[in-house]
Design a protein that fits this description.
- By secondary structure, this protein is of the alpha/beta class.
- Helices cover 30% and strands 25% of the residues.
- The chain is built from eleven helices and 18 strands.
- Strands 2, 5, 6, 8, 9, 10 and 11 form a seven-stranded mixed beta sheet that branches. A five-stranded parallel beta sheet has the order 13-12-14-15-16, with helices on both faces. The chain has a two-stranded parallel ribbon with strand order 1-7.
- Strand 5 and strand 6 form a beta hairpin.
- Helix 5 runs parallel beside helix 6.
- The chain starts with a helix and ends with a helix.
């Protein structure tokens, strides 16, 4: 243990001297924990088998070749098996959960790609860490690269954690970001993790833990892909925790508004809403609802319509077979199409026309409008 601490101190001293003179050596990387683990005698356990996803591209994209091509690239994907690796004396840095092995290598798998690690200031600036602590026992890091984002927390971090939970020691504690949002706390509670097992870690802190239980990714964030069986199990966990019995409620048609967002807004929403309300749609602003309220509301949905954005993540709580209608702006992605198919929903989409607003944040995606006829024709297609 003394040798281990001396080695860590030596590396930190070297980095500090290099940074003082403006020399920033690149971090050492571990791109595959499964390659590193056997030669170090780290414990490995298989959590989930490899899986493939093969979905048809929406017919409604025939008139939009660029968007169609983006969907086609992601229409047939394969993902490796998921494993749980026990790493002794691992370091977890900042509230984003950068993991460093005992050899000083940064794990890249938990942050989805190498660029997310080497491009982060923590890898080259040791002075950002103000507090260091040693934590005994068994730990799991529930801090992901985009974990503060509603979609990435629920769709990246939660499925990955759900498969690991049955295999963790009973007294395992969880490093979580500080501050921890109510949504994050509520979702962890739904998985049976009690507050006394959560240990918040701030941005300027790092923890040396006795044993870290590291779950490799299940699917991949870049494609919004996770294993369908795990996604459906996760949905059931949330329903049982916050919306038990809603399967007997009347089905609801929900429209998710982004009117309070700073970008990617439907500018003529007020003109479109009467058409939607005539068809029985309710206007929902998820940011004004607690996490349990979002689970309850969307667990009753038969149709969910909305502009591409985190609010569509709530399709996770809808019963399988719901209809998802995504409104794309001129810049968009296939994430919610992938998510919809994984959950067993029916997916439709259509594309708006760009409108450059004088108040537009030009660093973000542009606002847009929809024609009344376009909305009516899409509604007619699934009525």
């Amino acid at each position: 243990m003394a040798i281990r601490k001396a080695a860590i101190l030596a590396r930190r001293t070297t980095r500090s001297i290099a940074q003082t003179f403006g020399i920033n050596p690149p971090p050492r990387l571990c791109e595959s924990i499964l390659v590193a683990a056997p030669e170090r005698n780290w414990q490995i356990k298989r959590l989930h088998d490899a899986f493939t996803l093969n979905f048809s591209v929406p017919h409604s994209l025939q008139q939009h070749p660029t968007l169609k091509a983006r969907f086609e690239i992601n229409s047939n994907l394969g993902f490796p098996a998921q494993y749980l690796v026990t790493i002794p004396q691992a370091i977890i840095k900042t509230s984003s959960g950068f993991i460093v092995t005992p050899d000083g290598d940064y794990l890249t798998e938990g942050h989805w790609r190498v660029a997310n690690v080497v491009g982060h200031p923590i890898c080259r600036n040791e002075w950002l860490i103000k507090k260091r602590q040693n934590l005994s026992g068994d730990w799991y890091c529930a801090m992901g690269h985009w974990g503060a984002n509603y979609n990435h927390w629920l769709w990246d971090e939660m499925p990955r954690l759900l498969t690991a939970l049955p295999h963790l020691p009973a007294d395992t504690r969880f490093l979580v970001p500080d501050p921890l949002s109510e949504m994050q706390r509520d979702s962890l509670m739904a998985l049976g993790i009690k507050s006394q097992y959560l240990y918040p870690q701030a941005f300027d802190c790092e923890s040396l833990v006795e044993r870290l239980w590291f779950a490799t990714p299940l699917g991949h964030s870049e494609w919004a892909a996770t294993a369908p069986d795990v996604a459906k199990e996760l949905r059931q966990k949330f329903i049982e925790a916050y919306a038990k019995g809603t399967e007997n409620y009347p089905r609801r048609r929900l429209y998710i508004s982004r009117s309070e967002a700073r970008y990617r807004r439907l500018l003529n929403e007020e003109e479109i809403l009467p058409i939607l309300e005539k068809e029985g749609f309710e206007v929902i602003r998820p940011e004004n609802l607690s996490f349990p309220e979002q689970v309850q509301t969307f667990s009753q949905a038969s149709i969910i319509m909305g502009v591409h954005g985190a609010g569509l993540t709530n399709m996770l709580f809808a019963p399988s077979g719901a209809t998802i209608v995504e409104i794309h702006g001129p810049v968009s992605r296939s994430h919610y199409w992938m998510m919809s198919n994984i959950l067993g929903h029916h997916y439709y989409c259509f594309v708006g026309d760009t409108v450059i607003n004088s108040n537009q944040d030009r660093q973000k995606e542009p606002d847009f409008c929809l024609s009344h006829q376009n909305v009516i024709s899409v509604i007619d297609s699934f009525n």
